Amino acid sequence: MPAATAAKEEFVLEVHHRLSEVYGRQISYFHDLDPLSELVSALLSHRTKNRDSGQAFKNLMAVFGNWEAVCDAPLAEVQAAIHPCTWPEQKAPRIQQVLHLIGERHGSLTLDFLSDMPVADARKWLEDLPGVGPKSSAAVLSFSNMRAKALPVDSHHFRVAVRLGIIEAKIGEGKANRVLENLLPPDFTAQEMYDNHQVMMRHGQQICHHYKPECSRCVLLDLCPTGQQLVNKAV
C-alpha cells in the first residue's frame, strides 16, 4: 500500500474516533424498513427535507397500502400523494417506473433477495435502475432492515470530508461514496460503517455548516486545513 494511502487511512480513522467521542458509537438505526420501502424513501428524499419526504412516504402508504397498488395507480394519484416533496411531477413517474422494472426483472415486487447477494452485486443491481446512484444504493443496503455494510455519503458528510482534505470537491458525491468507503478499515462492521456516516453527517449539520462553520468549537480543528485557514483569517 502506498505510504500516502496508508497515511490517509490513518487520518480518516482518527477523524472517526474523535467524532465518535462526540456523537456516539453503536448509533441506533433510524429506519426499520424493508429494502424496497427504503428505496422508495430514498427516491423521495432527493433534494427534499427529511420531514417532507417522510410525509410523502407516509402518504403513499396511507393512500395505497402497498407498493403493488402504487405501481398500478393512476399517475396523478401518486403525484398528489407525494406532493410534500420537491418535484412530485418528476418523482411520481420515476417511482412507478422503478417499481415496474423491479417486478419485471425479479418477477415479484420485492428487494428482499438482495440480502442473499454480495454487497457489490446488490449495489450494482440497484444502480442499474433509473435514478439510483451510489448514495441511494448504499442507503438502501445500510438503512433498511438488511443492515448491510455500505457507506452512504450525503451533502453534510461530503462537505466535512472535503474541508478536511480527505477528498477533493471536484470528484462529486457519487464518486466520493466509493472513495470514502475504501478509506475505512476493511474489518469495519456494518454498524461501524453506519456510525461513520452518522458522525460525519451530524458534524456537518451541527458544527461544519455550509455557511459560517463553527470552527472554534470543532474537535477536528487541528486536523482541518480549511478550519485553520478560516480561524486565522478571522484573527
Write structural notes for this entry.
This protein has 235 residues and is mainly α. The protein is built from twelve helices and no strands.
Fold blueprint:
Blueprint: H1 3-23, H2 35-45, H3 50-64, H4 67-72, H5 75-81, H6 88-106, H7 119-127, H8 134-143, H9 155-163, H10 172-183, H11 190-206, H12 225-234
Helix pairs in contact: 1-11, 2-3, 2-8, 5-6, 7-8, 9-11
Descriptive tags:
2 domains, Endonuclease III, domain 1, mainly alpha, Endonuclease Iii, domain 2, 235 residues, globular
The CATH class of the largest domain turns out to be: Mainly Alpha
Mean pLDDT: 93
Largest sheet: none
Helix run count: 12
Percent helix, as a range, is: 55-70%
Order of helices and strands: HHHHHHHHHHHH
User: Uncertain spans, ≥5 residues at pLDDT below 50?
Assistant: none
CATH fold name of the largest domain: Endonuclease III, domain 1
